[in-house]
Amino acid sequence: MSDQQYPQFPQYPEQPRYPGQQGPPPGPPYPQYGYGPANYGPPPDNHLVWAILTTVLCCMPLGIVSIVKSNQVASLWAQGLHAEARQAADDAKKWAIWSAATMGILVGLYVVFLIVMIVVFGFAATELTPT
C-alpha cells in the first residue's frame, strides 16, 4: 500500500464572536442545503375547476387568465416560492370571480335590453293598429 494523501475538506473560517458570547458560534459555518425545518403545509387550492367552468360558461378571456394563474400554483409551490404560489392562487380565484361577474352583468344588461325593446315595440304596435 502506498501512503497516498487524500484531499482535506475545506476549512471554513470561524464565525465572529460577540462580546459576552459563550460557547460555539451560532449556526453552521457554511450554508446548509436540503429540506428546511419550516413546514408550510399543503399547497393552496389552485381553483382550477372554477377557472375552467368560468372559461367555458362565462367570459372566455378572463377565464383563460384564471386557468394560467391556477396552473402556476403547483410549480411555484414545488420551487419553494410559497408566497408567490399563494398569490397565484388568489389571482386565479380573483380572475374567475371577475369572469363570472362579467357574465352576470352581460346577462343583466341583455334582460334590460329585452324589457326595453318589448316596452318600446309594445307601445309602437298599439299606436300603429287602427281602432
TrEMBL record:
Keyword Plastid part of the UniProt annotation: no
Coiled-coil portions: none
Comp. bias intervals (Pro residues): 22-31
Keywords: Membrane, Transmembrane, Transmembrane helix
Disordered, as annotated region: 1-38
Entry GO CC: membrane
Pfam families, per database record: CD225
Transmembrane segments: 48-68, 95-125
Location of the protein in the cell: Membrane
Bias (Low complexity): 1-21
Claim: Membrane is one of the keywords in the record: yes
Record PANTHER family: DUF4190 DOMAIN-CONTAINING PROTEIN, NG5
Protein name stated in the entry: Interferon-induced transmembrane protein
Organism from which the protein derives: Prauserella shujinwangii
Lineage summary: Bacteria, Bacillati, Actinomycetota, Actinomycetes, Pseudonocardiales
